[in-house]
Amino acid sequence: MRTRSLTLFALALLASGCASRTGISLLPGETTAKGEKPVGALAVLDPETGEDLAVLDAANASAGISGKSVKRKDMSAEAMQAKYGDLLSAMPEQPRLFVLYFKEGSTELVDESTQLIPDLFDEVKRRPGVDVQVVGHTDTVGDGDGNDRLSVKRAEEVRDRLIGLGLDASLVRASGRGERELVEPTADDVASIFNRRVEVLVK
Questions:
Q1: Phi, psi at residue 88, to the nearest 5°?
Q2: What is the DSSP string of the chain?
Q3: Cα separation, 7 vs 85, whole angstroms
Q4: Claim: this prediction has a pTM higher than 0.85
Q5: What is the 3-state secondary structure (H, E, C) of 131-143?
Q6: What is the C-alpha to C-alpha distance for residues 56 and 116, in angstroms, rounded to an integer?
Q7: Closest Cα partner for 116 from 162, 153, 155?
Q8: What are the chain's domains?
Q9: Model pLDDT for residues 80-133, shown as the tens digit of each residue
């Protein structure tokens, strides 16, 4: 939705026919659990023909617009910070996603995920007015109803760990999605550690 809104904004700039030069920029997206920064894409369209005049598809890309003339420029992170530092500092901090994995058929975290709990809690207590969403998932082993219950229990296990470390229970919500949102598409009754997970969004 954000990408669509930006695209329409860019189109409106062209349609307005302003004589002055206008600039648009695509800022970095929030960091995923893998450390990636997705940004989507932003198209600047000719309002008469619908032709793409420019496409911004990378973080820190900018376009100067004057009439129907569009000049793209890829800026460094440092240059973007220098130009938009005040704006960026005033924006809310981006949410952070943690993904924890479980042993098959259980609510027991694998060792590597257990070791992430202190980092997760550090992130939680660092943020004023924190909101924590905990969503459990399963692989396709077992029946759907049982996996729904298991996914909730996994989410509650992580929630209870955070509360045990000192998080106010009113600031965390736990829910389960069963096997409906697989990150590794599989056939039925296929074990997958990537699907046996809890996603914790800290914002």
A1: -65, -40
A2: -HHHHHHHHHHHHHHTT-SS-EEEEE------TTS------EEEE-TTT--EEEEE-STTEEEEEETTEEEEEEPPHHHHHHHHHHHHHHSPPPPEEEEEEB-TTSSPBPHHHHTTHHHHHHHHHHSTT--EEEEE---SSS-HHHHHHHHHHHHHHHHHHHHHTT--GGGEEEEE-TTSS-SS---TT---TTTSEEEEEE-
A3: 23
A4: no
A5: CEEEEECCCCCCC
A6: 35
A7: 162
A8: 2-89 (no CATH), 96-202 (3.30.1330.60)
A9: 788 877 777 777 778 999 999 999 999 999 999 999 999 999 999 999 889 999
Matching residue, tokens 């049982």: 146
| Token pair of 58 as six digits | 């990378």
Q: In residues, how long is the chain?
A: 203
